[in-house]
Structures are given as structure tokens and as C-alpha cells.
């Protein structure tokens, strides 16, 4: 009886251990390159998503068909599925972080990347196609990753739209090993793939010609030699053609433009959401209020997920009479694209009570003198 109980206890402990362990360990990334059943068209469809409003033609891949593919189980990257391109073998990408991903494919480099990085590239993997968007802007999310961070070989990624590279770090630098290493854009955490480090999730946005033929080219390569590989993970469904909202129109405080002597100590704000895409709606707003233009020392609402654009009550520090407060608002559309702020707006409040209406004063005085 005691032995059976002991077995049950050991078995229970084993189940608990397995449950905890499977909760911690993330699923292994699954990849499939172009040497299998995945086609070039599949990759573009993965990038486009269903609601992309883009017509595509002339899809071509340059480089090894083992260097470009699709991935899933990519949660650690910040996006589950997408397209992966490397200067080595896609099949090596899911290996553990301490594996060196290091293959000389014997493939040539790419002239556009040579120019971009000012070096000699090799083992280029290139996906390109023509497209006709309905709207005048496109956006992509991606991560650049590399095993070359410790060595400073300047492997690079380019995303060329109509010949112009739009893959840039937030500081305007090109996306490469030495521009990312040691900056706030570097992420050295284990993201369940073989690369020793990566960029943070980056987004590329570009103006394109609506209803006209545009050309897009994704390219990644080794630089300097063909060894120690780099890769790029591009999020599925991230090729959304969308216009960012305009700055909010008609910003009002207490229903007025730049009111003075308002008596409400928690005044309400309103505006009109404005977007070049006729069917788009507001998904979020942010209001800031400060004692100086562009200041947020009184109130920063943060990004508030809401479609409301009327009667948004002030929620900051106590307002005082005799100070001119500055405020502005920006919005996000239902595709999470962000507007600029409206122009600087002002208001001030009074500490005087509402004045007694003059006609009552007149009547009171008249009665007194009778
Ligand atoms: Ca590695
Ligand atoms: Ca390399
Ligand atoms: Ca290589
Ligand atoms: Ca829009």
C-alpha cells in the first residue's frame, strides 16, 4: 500500500514537472524552404494577408531555394508566422542559439546591397515582385538576426521599393550588423532560433503609387565573406496598404476653439477623426496637456483604445487659474496607423464664480430703490 502511494506521488510529481516545463519551453520554430512544397507565390501570399488590397505579379527569387522559406511557431520573435530569408540555410534557423549558423552557399551577392552597405556581399537571398496597391502607403514588420554580431562582418538587409531602400533603423541607419550592435535596437535574448542576436521588431513604411505598378525587393546577404549567416523574419499579413490618419480636425475644449476663463476644472475635449481611407475609423487616441507648447507636464492620457472623440474629460493634475494650458491630440486608425498631433491648442480656467446675470442685478437694485 505504501509503495503504491509512493508511485502515485512520484507519478503526480512527474506530471506537475512536465506541465511546468512545457509551459516554460516554447514550441520549436517550424520552417519550410523553397526546395519543398512551398512556392514563391505562397511566400508572397503569407506576406500579403487577406485584406491587403494589393495585386501582385512577376514574383522572382534569386539565390538558393534553401535560403528562403516560411516559418511558424515564431512567438518569441513577437510574431507567430511569416517569411524567413537567410544568407545560409533556412533549415538551420530553428536550431538552438548556441549553434553556429554558418554555410557558404557559393551564391553571388546583390548589387543593391553592395551599394547600400558599401561593401562586397555574398550568398544573397532575394525575393522580388511587382504590385499594384489600392492605397498610397504600405507597411511591414520584421526582425533582422545574425550570428555575425560577435565578428562585425557587416551582413545586411534591404527592402527596396521602386529602387529605394525603406528598411531603416529608427535613427535612419541601414539595417546591418554594425549599425544594430551595441544600440538600443539590438536584442540579445534567446528568441528560439540559431542566431546569436537580432534587431528589435522594426517596421518599414513607404509611400507608393496607388493604382500603378510598383516594384518591391527583399534582399539579405553576407558581407565580406560567405560565412556566419544572417537572416530576416518578416511578419505575415504585414503588407497592409493603408494611409495614416490625418491630424485630428476641429479640436475643441468645452466645445470651443482656444477658450478662455472656462469654469469647468475638468474640461472636456473633442475632435473629428480624419483619414484618407473613407471607411477607416478611430481605434485609439492620445491627449497631452502641458504648461508649455508640446508639454505633457499636466496630463498624458497615453494611448487610449477608444473610438470616442467627444466629451473626453481632462484627467490630469489640478488646473489653476491664471495659467494658459496647451493641449493637442492624435489618433490611430483601425489598422493601428498613427496620425500626427493637431496644431497646438490652448485654454485657461477662471477662479471666479459664474457672474450673476445682469438683468437680475438690475431688477434687484430697482426694487431696493422703490
Ligand atoms: Ca548561434
Ligand atoms: Ca556573414
Ligand atoms: Ca553564408
Ligand atoms: Ca487609414
Summed up, what is this model?
This is Fibronectin type-III domain-containing protein. The chain is α+β, with helices and mostly antiparallel strands and 370 residues long.
Global mean pLDDT: 89
CATH architecture label name of the largest domain:
Sandwich
Structural class: alpha+beta
Major sheet attributes: 9 strands, antiparallel
Name the CATH class of the largest domain: Mainly Beta
Work out the count of structural domains: 2
The hetero compounds bound to this protein are: calcium ion
Number of helices: 5
CATH topology of the largest domain: Jelly Rolls
Low-confidence segments, given as residue ranges, are 1-8, 13-24, 362-370
Tertiary shape = elongated
N-to-C terminal Cα separation, in Å?
Answer: 109 Å
- Written as H for each helix and E for each strand, in order along the chain, the element string is HEHEEEHEEEEEHEEEEEEEEEEEEEEH
Radius of gyration: 29 Å
Model description:
- With 370 residues, this protein is of the alpha+beta class.
- It has two domains: 25-241, Jelly Rolls (Sandwich), CATH 2.60.120; 249-347, Immunoglobulin-like.
- The protein is built from five helices and 23 strands.
- The strands form four sheets. Strands 1, 3, 4, 6, 10, 11, 12, 14 and 15 form a nine-stranded antiparallel β-sheet that branches. Strands 2, 5, 7, 8, 9 and 13 form a six-stranded antiparallel β-sheet that branches. Strands 18, 19, 20, 22 and 23 form a five-stranded antiparallel β-sheet that branches.
- It is elongated, with a radius of gyration of 29 Å.
- The termini are far apart.
- One calcium ion binds next to loops.
